[in-house]
Specification:
The structure holds 2 protein chains of 2 kinds.
Chain A: E1 3-5, H1 11-30, E2 34-40, E3 43-48, H2 53-62, E4 68-78, E5 90-98, E6 103-111, E7 117-119, H3 128-139, E8 142-144, H4 184-187
Parallel strand pairs in A: 3-6, 7-8
Antiparallel strand pairs in A: 2-3, 4-5, 5-6
Chain B: E1 7-11, E2 23-29, E3 32-39, H1 47-52, H2 60-63, H3 71-86, H4 92-120, H5 124-145, E4 154-155, E5 158-159, H6 167-189, H7 193-199, H8 207-212, H9 218-221, H10 229-232, E6 245-247, H11 253-277, H12 295-300, H13 302-313, E7 321-329, E8 332-340, E9 348-352, H14 354-359, H15 362-366, H16 372-381, H17 385-389
Antiparallel strand pairs in B: 1-2, 2-3, 4-5, 7-8, 8-9
Helix pairs in contact in B: 3-4, 4-5, 4-11, 4-16, 5-6, 6-11
The chains are: A alpha/beta, B alpha+beta.
Chain lengths: 188, 390
Amino acid sequence: MAQTHEPAIVKSETSEGNDARIRRFLRERFGEAIRHEEVFRGDLQFTVDPEKIYDICEALMEAGGLDVRFLADITCVDWHGHSEAVHGRFEVVYNLCSLAHRSRFFLKVRLPETNPHVRSLVDLWHGANWMEREVWDLFGVTFDGHPDLTRLLTPDDFEGHPLRKDYPLVYEQPKFSWNENDPPEVIR
Amino acid sequence: MAEARTVTINMGPQHPSTHGVLRVILELDGETVVKARPVVGYLHTGIEKTMESKLYYKALPCTDRMDYLAPMSNNLGYSLAVEKLLGIEVPEKVKWARVILAELTRINSHLVWLGTHALDLGAMSMLLYAFRERELILDVYEACGGQRMMTSYIRIGGLAHDLPKDFDRKVRDIIATLTARLEDYEGLLTRNEIFINRTKGVAVISAEDALNWSLSGPMLRGSGVARDLRKDEPYSGYENFDFQIALGHNGDAYDRYLLRMEEIRQSLRICRQGIDGLPEGPYRAHVPGVVLPPKEDVLYKMESMIFHFKIITEGFAAPLGSVYQAIESPKGELGFYVVGDGTTMPRRIRVRPPSLINLASLPRLVEGRLFSDVICAIGSIDIVLGEVDR
């Protein structure tokens, strides 16, 4: 039978303490890689060096006391045409959870307009696979080392990356594809 | 013919058991699945892009078109995210009403899941019973917002209208009816040998794997991980309610069935507490220029009418910054990542779709298993393709 469960930890006590722990951990281990740090409306956010994102996530995972085992989401923001774009047009956002302490924080990396790429996290989390495919599909950010970086939501022969701000809002690509990338047995 | 041991077949996208337009390319060795590759995107309509091209207020009706079986959860998640971005606090009555509606939505979504999942496995009568009870919940939606599915009832800063006069009676009716009928459902399925054989030990995922695959909701709790955002990151006043998290042991489809049945019970418990303690008060926050004034005032007060006009035509500017608000939707962690850039339209609205991220684990669930288990696995993940593809 399904059991019911009453959690013993109260959020308000542990979460803030854990935020401070995560901040201390990142400052000590990756002080030079942190470019910006802020708490906006209670959300703890770090902007870090894109070269270091894999190492930071790996270290967070392995640090026993922090318990950062859950990657909730990967997404991207396009700052095209905004003053924020001077820091880099694309902002990839990693949404991480510390389970036992019930706290959540965000790691962000800024990538340039030309050839935006960052190392894939699939080796750490299987869940990153589809999230990164979606970001590649909709924003055109390449994830180095991803085992299967193909389009997720749009067709295989789609041109462009529709969630970029310079992709027109009401532009359709009226095309018929024969799913060339499928195995030949499926097409026939 | 020694080399050709496997055969590749295509399942979907119009297969009835895929609950929409999901396509799976399966490589089979006899009846065993060697490789499964889900293909999604047939329903991709660019909802995130559409929302980014609208005023904050007008993006709301897009949300209930994603998970159309749980419209109120989507409304709630988006409203909470924008309220967090703007720093709005809503009245107590709104919080309580939202909790009741969100829990009714959970029951609604679980009932559809129960009916269709059982139908996939051959228990046809279950679908008829589940949809019969779901009508009662849709009646409440209709009384509240005027629509049975795309409700858009929960708005930024409050509710679209005040709660209907017979809300209390209707919700109490649902609680009484469902409490009795849940026994019937369990009588049909819980000890049904066919159902047990089709679900027990099928689509198993361990707690460790479930975390590594970023699963959430019943998929994660079915494996014994006690993660429920209503407890972990309470929103909308869930900390005031007394309820428990249902947990499974084995992480198989049968445990997830038991777990969802228990979740319906807990939701009924929350609804009862909510309806008993529902406070009086306004149904919208009073934030001039951001939250629409009540309709009664718009008709008689000049200032209210001006604010109404300005909010609808030019909207309100949100500060530069990003917030993430996640809620425990019936399917799992439904998150809204909203980025404001100082203008009246959002720079980015990212929906973390629990269905999509749970579906990514399908190959892990079915590879090495029998072909017929694929049907059970898809049903037990509980996906809505509107949310998967957006």
